[in-house]
Amino acid sequence: MSQPGPIALSCGEPAGIGPEIAVKAWQALRDSCPFFWIGDARHLPAGTPVTEIASPAAAAAACADSFPVLPLTFGGGTAKGTADPDNAAGVIESIETAVQLVRSGKASAVCTAPIHKKALIDGAGFAYPGHTEFLAALAGRERVVMMLASDQLRVVPATIHIALSDVPAALTPELLRETIGITAAGLRDQFGIASPRIAVAGLNPHAGEGGAMGREELDWINALIVQMQGEGLNVTGPHPADTMFHAAARARYDAAVCMYHDQALIPIKTLDFDRGVNVTLGLPFIRTSPDHGTAFDIAGTGQANPSSLIQALKLAQTMAAGT
């Protein structure tokens, strides 16, 4: 297995916990997982030993003894707990720089710290619903897929941030086919699973129970899965969601494709709340992120748990080594 290059970590919202957990992650990993932080060092915790680097190539050597920073100059302040819109342009530049460096081969993967969308809208007219959509636009991809991954479970929601009442209309055969296909390709290309096993959850309780609790499974979900099986994909379902996530069931698949946000996120957050990682599949580069937000209420207090970011960096390194 080849040794991957350093990981580019975008700074995220500087008034949140991103800078603090970045330094805690470096303290835990040091040179075992080289990465560099892209941002304004004024936002880092006081006393952090910083080495400003001119290029990613210098990150690995710096990591053993100091926190490597690829410096940007932000226009706003350094207060914690409340986002300063004057920092918005810098936050966006940090993400853009990370993507440019990984696409040019100077970094092996992008890891992103949490952003605050309202601050980006207020300060820089940010035109995207979130990180994932912005990264897709930077990569020129119309459709990408969000995976939440841990050592115990990988889940992919086909529909994400919409009301539950809107799910049946949004969940089309085309959307589910694309989601399953991108998931299978990501498991092969980025996770190194030659023949990925994908379990698809039903939309309705008991996967519709023969039409007694909903007809989507009978009307088209069953047929789509059979069709994709005929195309060579190792996909099964639709399975009742309430029996998909116990240990014996999880052993039978590499990822679960779920129909809506909570159907996917409740089991992984229950099984491994602090160590879940957000992975974007369908991009032409590796992108991971901790599975939490900016946590303004504890920013700057030293209480932030870096576990999810540590796992995001380690997973990015493992994925990069296998590609």
TrEMBL record:
Gene3D superfamilies in UniProt: Isopropylmalate Dehydrogenase (3.40.718.10)
EC number: 1.1.1.262
Pathway: Cofactor biosynthesis; pyridoxine 5'-phosphate biosynthesis; pyridoxine 5'-phosphate from D-erythrose 4-phosphate: step 4/5
Residues engaged in binding a divalent metal cation: H161, H206, H261
Binding annotation for substrate: H131, T132, K269, N278, R287
Cofactor note: Binds 1 divalent metal cation per subunit. Can use ions such as Zn(2+), Mg(2+) or Co(2+).
Cofactor: Zn(2+); Mg(2+); Co(2+)
Catalytic activity: 4-(phosphooxy)-L-threonine + NAD(+) = 3-amino-2-oxopropyl phosphate + CO2 + NADH
Keywords from the named record: Cobalt, Cytoplasm, Magnesium, Metal-binding, NAD, NADP, Oxidoreductase, Pyridoxine biosynthesis, Zinc
Location in or out of the cell: Cytoplasm
Note: The active site is located at the dimer interface.
PANTHER family: 4-HYDROXYTHREONINE-4-PHOSPHATE DEHYDROGENASE, D-THREONATE 4-PHOSPHATE DEHYDROGENASE
Family: Belongs to the PdxA family.
Function according to Swiss-Prot or TrEMBL: Catalyzes the NAD(P)-dependent oxidation of 4-(phosphooxy)-L-threonine (HTP) into 2-amino-3-oxo-4-(phosphooxy)butyric acid which spontaneously decarboxylates to form 3-amino-2-oxopropyl phosphate (AHAP).
Protein name: 4-hydroxythreonine-4-phosphate dehydrogenase
Gene: pdxA
